[in-house]
Amino acid sequence: MGNYGNLFGWLIVTGLVLTLLNYPVKAIYRKWVAELDNESSFKRGYLKFQQFIVKYHRFFGLFTTMMLLTHLIIQISYRWVSRTGIIAASLLVLNVILGAYGHYIRKKKRSAWFYVHRTIAVLTTIAIVLHIVMQGR
Description:
Elements: H1 2-20, H2 22-31, H3 41-55, H4 57-78, H5 83-106, H6 112-135
Helix pairs in contact: 1-4, 2-3, 4-5, 5-6
């Protein structure tokens, strides 16, 4: 069962990477791709990729959360729960709550929640990397 715990842990990482792509994909577009000619095949391809990432951002976050719950159940049932894992999981769940708040209540109006959401995403990433490193010991 420990292998399943590892599998779902890496699925969390995959989902998180897909979720976090939202910001850099938009930033790259604004900085470099937007200036390209509209006839550019690279620009058209990049726009399709960007639209996919932006459109499914919340679903990637939901996928990541579902994998987190599965990982947590496996770890509680068959192994142990680590402090670094609890911290990472708590930050991830907090960020999902903030994202849902922004999507359903604030309805795309940027305010403090948006910047807190981004900051928590960075802290979650750091916590997950720390969790992975600490589990390797």
